[in-house]
Amino acid sequence: MTEILLLAILVLIFVIIFQIAKASEYVSVLKGEEKARKQNNKINAFLLISFLIFGLIGIWWCNDMYYGKTLFPQGAASVLGEKIDLMLYITIGVTGVVFVITQVLLFWFAYKYQEKDDNKAFYFPHDNKLELLWTTVPAIFLTVLVVFGLKYWFKMTSDAPADAVVVEVTGHQFGWEFRYPGADGILGKKNYKLTTGTNSLGVDFSDPASHDDIHVSGTMHIPVGKPIKFVINSQDVIHDVGLPHFRLKMDAVPGIPTTLWFTPLYTTDSMKVRTGNPDFVYELSCDQMCGKGHFSMRGVIIVDSEADYEKWLAGQKSEYSTLYPADSTKTIASK
Asked: Are the C-beta atoms of residues 213 and 233 closer than 8 Å to each other?
């Protein structure tokens, strides 16, 4: 309610100032102060051209200052991410050129064609060729971008290669949990009714396929150079799996599993060298506002060499053997 009141006050102040300015202008005209009005026009025209010059300098300065702090200089860390970066560069390039041209013309025209006694306005009501030009050209360009965007979207959400490493990603307020299939390559079934403190994912351990599944929290390990398939879930509200270094993201929706797959290009150690940052880590962020602890919902992805990944995987215990050590021992003995 306070925010609405403040907004209403700001709007009211703006309206009052605008009305005072217009009333002052009308009073000046009625008093025959035409010269003052023309002088104000010249000042405004000068201020507009100054705003253009300092604005363009500011844009260049901000880019020079902050570009190195973005993720672009590092390059995309996945195969599909490189293509998405290329598409983004093309989009920024074309729209940037159009932006500069249109803004320069807008402010320059305001300065050049300011009111003068010997100037006469040219009446130009309509031109079919111009209408066709500035409608079809942007439409064609945007259509091409949409087609490429859909192509990459269908690629990342299509069926992953048969040899893909499968990782189930589950989000909840405010953290991430990961589950890997064991030697059988099959994730066991889940049932939300089975979710308890010790069985936080609601895994159905009556399903034999779940007995070798591995459950870890906070930090995920994946191998470099191999397709990685994420099976994404949420236990409460809508979250979003954000993979900024891989240039990918996907919603985590309660009750509706979503998927994406990608191929990492660089190990975490390689990225430490590429970025010059010894503390570099791949981040898994929540890109959807999900509550007061949203800011803290962050996971870490460690991209290992294949040998290091296999070594890490071999050192993990299944969740079933951790929760039911006696039963797991009997199962091993019976085998």
From this structure: no
Identity of residue 72: F
Which among 227, 202, 229 is positioned nearest to 213, based on CA atoms?
Answer: 202
Neighbouring CB atoms inside 10 A of 157's CB total: 13
First CA to last CA distance, the chain? 66
**How many CB atoms are located within 10 Å of the residue 256 CB?**
11
- Residue whose C-alpha is closest to residue 251's, from 227, 233, 228: 233
Strand pairing class (258-262; 282-286): unpaired
Average pLDDT, the chain: 87
For helices 128-157 and 79-112, what crossing angle results, to 10°? 160
- Tokens 């797991």 correspond to 328
**How far apart (Å, rounded) are the C-alpha atoms in residues 37 and 117?**
13
Does the pTM exceed 0.85?
Answer: no
> Using CA atoms, how far apart are residues 257 and 14, in angstroms rounded to an integer?
48
pLDDT tens, position by position, 46-72: 888 888 888 888 889 988 888 888 888
